[in-house]
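Slide 14.
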Amino acid sequence: MTTPIPPATQEFPPTLREVMLRGRWIGMLVLCLVVAAVFAWLGQWQLGRAVESDPTPPGATEEVLPLDEVVKPGAYLPAPSVGQRVRTTGEWVPGDFLVVASRFNDGVQGYWVTGQLRIANAPEPTSLAVAVGWAPDEKTAAEAVERLDREAGGVVELSGRLIPDEGGKAPPRGEPDRMDRMSPAMLLGRWHGVEELAVYRPYLTAAEPSGGLARIDSPAPIEQSPVNWLNVFYAAEWAVFAGFAFYLWYRLARDAWEREVEEFEERTGDA
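Slide 15: predicted structure.
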């Protein structure tokens, strides 16, 4: 009598859960947790920078402050102080009234007449570039320069807004003396008596013109939101990266499981 052969033990492919619980994928999950924690910390740091903890009070730039309380000679103007109204005293330096072209006043193109104000009672020779006033044409600007040079002398008190240096720009071809940017650094190269002179980096737009010029239109700066939305966007990006680390782990583990299932089906199919 023939003994029957028992059927072969039926095999089943591993489940996705079984693959994920293997040591290799547990180790990768721990690595993903570390990476996600770093991304989360970076997102939190970015979010902390997005909201100012001590924002500038509304209208702070409209309070007239002493110049030396807002910025020091040679220092950059802090962002919250851009457009700050300040006051100071000094003397005009004759011969240093210069014209800057391409200046708009209420949408009309014209010229600024600028001057070197030597600050009074400074511990060392210190100057501030001042936009004295606006002229509609070059002839009016030149006449104002002559008048200001004649009237220069004695201490004057000025107030106005502090504006950052606009940066240098090469003059047009054939016009080497033309200036189209209000830049104290460029004006310094044309001023007199600048040996060992300390200079303020920002310039002042005078609240009241002189020399027969028109008042420069210099409105209050637009109030900035205390929330930096660009930093908020960066913080959201870090959160996405943290989530992507887990998705990548899941996708790799699933791909490995699918390959094992395909290999199992190929083996059982060939059998």
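Speaker note: The helical segments are 16-20, 23-50, 67-70, 138-151, 184-188, 229-270.
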